[in-house]
Design brief:
With 532 residues, this protein is α/β, with parallel strands linked by helices. Helices cover 38% and strands 19% of the residues. The structure holds nicotinamide-adenine-dinucleotide.
């Protein structure tokens, strides 16, 4: 098997780019930006209800079964009609990607990188439109939707530059008078399986990382966010990506997704989602299928039960603000969301009282209306799951705010605070993925750290304290992939905060970091003895 050979075409890299900087967020206090977003929401609404094909081997493909994507703020609104791929179509998509790999792996790196930079440019031009789709399909507020688009652009710009760095011969230690070097070559076909909560950023990040490294992809988006994925795919095609390299397969996880994961020609799986599904994929990829030539590689980024520690030497007002934004931003539906506030007993009562006052100011309602800080949760199933947890929580602690669905047809769950929760309680241990915060009392800082580390997860965490020694202790002992000191625990920026967690939070692949592309490459050492 000569997979990856030919990637030597990457040796000449001339494309120069200025250093990466993050895409700025839109300032919606400016009237022109508000007007642009209003116009985009109107334009996008006029496109509701279209049917979207899948793409397999560059061809449009329809399925007999369909799935509607709806707006969680107004569930009767149908945004798009999508194909429900069957297992045969999933297999065909992997075969098509395997065929396309033979060509794509030989395309010079610069050409692959240029696709990402062109895609970033198109996304920048269509920023408001993309944000509007995100707002409608998964219920993000304007600011959250804009941040999702900015991160999407960042991934294209960052991974493009990273691939330029990794292209061509890599230096090794000189040895004897041999000519020695190492090159990074692609892996093969990747199944890319993202979640719905960063429907543009995560779907794009995993996809473009795989593609720019020279792999081909079958992208199976979440059932909750196929429209945004379809828009991203359209943009990548428009940016010049050969259609055969990116197969777009909509369908259910447990059949179409599972078929991608288990296919013998799938070389790697890039997944972001729940612990349960991540573990299923880990198990399925560990088993060799008939005809399978490799050990499948996996990038599995999973859930969290993230904590913010509020020390007795903290600026309590800053901590209240950080906890509120981390717990209730995007309805608590971020893997990085704070779902546990662990508060030193000396400041506990003050903190809780201020937290409740602050959270009462949060507005909840349809996300197309910028007056609402919080929109709906993503689906009826998600809402029912969250409400079930709230019932459990009412028995496990003292309900201080929220606690039931907001009237109306949308899936609105108001911010819910439950205090005096035991660190071992279910709502302190299990990922709820909604706007539910457990407040836990700690004896002192050491006790708080111990409680913070005492879950099966290890994704993000934050500490509020003015005591430098305590912060240093947290740096060493708070076992999370992303630790924040005196700031909120959400909002990782590409480049600045490489992202990924420990333990049951995943494989710590560090998206948006300088190690990330290596997950999509394999290294080949070449050593030549000079001829006489
Ligand atoms: P999910 O696990 O339900 O679904 C994720 C993806 O897996 C979807 O595309 C789904 O269709 C697919 N899938 C489901 N069953 C499958 C199977 N058997 N085989 C193959 N694919 C299958 O997660 P979700 O509800 O979309 O997302 C929320 C979860 O994602 C939360 O747990 C959250 O913490 C996590 N998340 C983690 C990160 C991170 O970086 N660690 C980032 C965002 C979200």
């Amino acid at each position: 098997m000569d997979e990856g050979e030919g990637a030597m075409a990457t040796a000449e890299v001339k494309l120069q780019k200025p250093e990466f900087t993050n895409e700025p967020f839109v300032d919606f206090s400016k009237p022109e930006n508000r007007a642009a977003m209003e116009a985009a929401l109107k334009k996008v609404a006029s496109e509701f209800g279209r049917e979207y094909p899948m793409y397999i081997g560059g061809e449009k493909v329809m399925a007999t079964e369909k799935k509607r994507s709806t707006n969680p703020s107004h569930p009767s609104q149908v945004l798009g009609i999508f194909q429900k791929a069957n297992v045969e179509q999933a297999k065909a998509a992997v075969e098509a990607a395997a065929k396309a790999f033979e060509t794509w792996k030989r395309v010079p790196t610069e050409q692959r990188v240029e696709v990402l930079f062109r895609a970033a440019k198109i996304m920048r031009e269509r920023k408001f439109e993309l944000a509007a789709w995100i707002c409608y399909e998964v219920g993000k507020s304007w600011a959250e939707a804009d941040a999702d688009v900015a991160e999407t652009i960042d991934f294209c710009e960052f991974y493009g530059r990273e691939m330029l760095r990794l292209a061509g011969p890599q230096k090794v230690t000189p040895y004897l008078n041999e000519r020695n070097f190492m090159v990074y070559i692609p892996l093969g076909v990747g199944a890319v399986i993202p979640p719905w909560n960063f429907p543009a950023a995560i779907a794009t990040g995993m996809t473009v990382a795989a593609l720019v490294a020279g792999n081909t992809v079958v992208l199976k988006p979440s059932e909750e966010s196929p429209t945004i994925a379809a828009k991203v795919v359209e943009i990548l095609y428009e940016a010049g990506l050969p259609k055969e390299t990116l197969n777009f397969l909509t369908g259910r996880g447990h059949d179409a997704g599972d078929a991608l994961v288990k296919h013998p020609k799938t070389r790697f799986v890039a997944f972001t989602g729940s612990k349960e599904v991540g573990l299923l994929i880990s198990e399925a990829t560990g088993k060799r299928q008939p005809g399978q030539l490799w050990i499948k590689r996996t990038v599995l980024e999973m859930g969290g039960k993230d904590a913010i520690i509020v020390d007795d030497e903290a600026d309590v007002d800053a901590a209240v603000e950080g906890v509120t934004l981390s717990a209730f931003g995007y309805q608590g539906q971020k893997c990085s969301a704070c779902s546990r506030a662990i508060v030193s007993e000396k400041v506990y009562d003050t903190f809780v009282q201020k937290l409740v006052e602050r959270t009462k100011r949060i507005t909840v309602g349809p996300s197309e209306d910028p007056a609402n800080y919080m929109g709906p949760v993503v689906s009826e199933t998600a809402m029912n799951g969250i409400l079930d947890y709230i019932e459990v929580g009412k028995k496990e602690g003292r309900l201080l705010l929220g606690g039931s669905r907001k009237p109306g047809d949308g899936y609105f769950v108001p911010p819910t605070i439950i205090a005096d929760v035991n660190p071992k309680a279910r709502i302190a241990q299990e990922e709820i993925f909604g706007p539910v915060l457990a407040v836990i009392k700690a004896k002192d800082f050491d006790d708080a750290l111990q409680i913070a580390n005492d879950t099966e997860f290890g994704l993000t965490g934050a500490v509020y304290s003015k005591n430098k020694a305590k912060l240093a202790k947290a740096e060493e002992a708070f076992h999370v992939g992303n630790l924040y000191l005196n700031r909120k625990c959400t909002g990782a920026m590409v480049g600045a905060h490489p992202f990924g967690g420990f333990n049951m939070s995943g494989t710590d692949s560090k998206t948006g970091g300088k190690d990330y592309l290596l997950h999509f490459l394999q290294a080949k050492s070449i050593s030549e003895k000079p001829m006489n």
